[in-house]
Design goal:
Length: 384
Amino acid sequence: MKVGMDQISFYTSQYFLDLKTLAEARGVDPDKYVLGIGQEKMGIPPPDEDVVTMAASAAFPLKEKGALDGVETLLFATESGIDQSKAAGLFVHGLLNLPERCRVVELKQACYSATVALRMAMGLVTMRPQSKVLVIASDVARYELGSPGESTQGCGAVAFTISADPQLLAIDPEAGFYAADVMDFWRPNYLSEALVDGKFSTLVYIRALKAAWKQYAEESGRSLEDFARFCYHIPFTRMAAKAHQKLSRGISDEELEKVIGESLIYSREAGNCYAASLYVGLASLLDNAAEDLSEKRIGLYSYGSGCVGEFFSGVVQPGYRRALLTAAHQKLLAGRTELTFQQYEDIYHYGIPTDGGKHDFAQYRTGPFRFAGIREHKRIYERA
Ligand code: CAA
């Protein structure tokens, strides 16, 4: 029995900052961001958008097309948790009117957690092939203003379902994985911005990749030539390019563009989406590949600082294009509102009130759901 990804839907905020605007404000050559980092825009969530509204907005198109029928478990992957106790997925469960007979849990390991969610989902579906699991990864990448990480911010969510006889990607059983206790990137509970040892983080990303790939290759007997495309965790698109250059030494620029280029299109526009980033890359690849990828094998590398890395793979299923939401994704990215630098800084400084009072948030552009306010420390969500 094949088990894997049946549907995929991507959402990012309706606002973005152009990195040329950031470069001008920070007195940096724009080519550093556009060419050196490989980013053009970064998604910025307004005050009434958070990981819950982005997650629900990503999953909503799947609900509308009936693709969530049969979902028995919702796994919510994030490192932008909004509560120390309650799973953010429960708010999404409510907004989407999912059945009471549903397990809901939140998973955390930096940008890696959606991949362990995928693996757990495969186990659940293998045990009960008539059931489905909804996995949602949703995050806001946020660093201190003026820090080197600032240009690698972003936000977004990806919702995907795992089922038997999947329409998109049958996941292979083999995987290589690696863990080490390192402090390359972290966010203490009392901070709303991540702390990062930037250069070190890029080295650990590669170290984990090499170890995970070696193990995967030994277990599967496959080599790089067995893959039509690769998708990497994308903190910024140049990182994915560098990662593939490390695996595939001496690869030409043309070949590099062929095997990873399509997977980087959405991330260049949305920025880092942390736990969702690898899957933003996969959606980008499936939506944008001019070549029919049916029956082709895709290599995927997931990395979460701290750190855990995993290399795994899947085979694209015949007829996969019929299940894609390409037009909706492209419309979303094309219809966003550009922020001025002042608007970006104002949104950045907007803090969630913590006094337990009654607060209504101004209405900005969002997807189908918005974070309307706070009452007695309870978050209030509503249809936009
Ligand atoms: N024109 C073209 N290129 C230029 C340029 C110009 N005018 N100026 C600089 N560049 C190039 C540099 O040569 C460099 O390229 P190489 O890496 O190929 O040498 C690139 O632009 C970046 O320049 P710097 O190395 O000087 O950049 P920096 O030190 O200011 O910041 C960073 C880079 C450390 C990645 C920083 O953005 C950061 O800390 N980001 C957050 C951490 C991160 O994303 N880490 C990734 C791995 S960890 C992970 O993946 C988990 C996660 O999601 C966070």
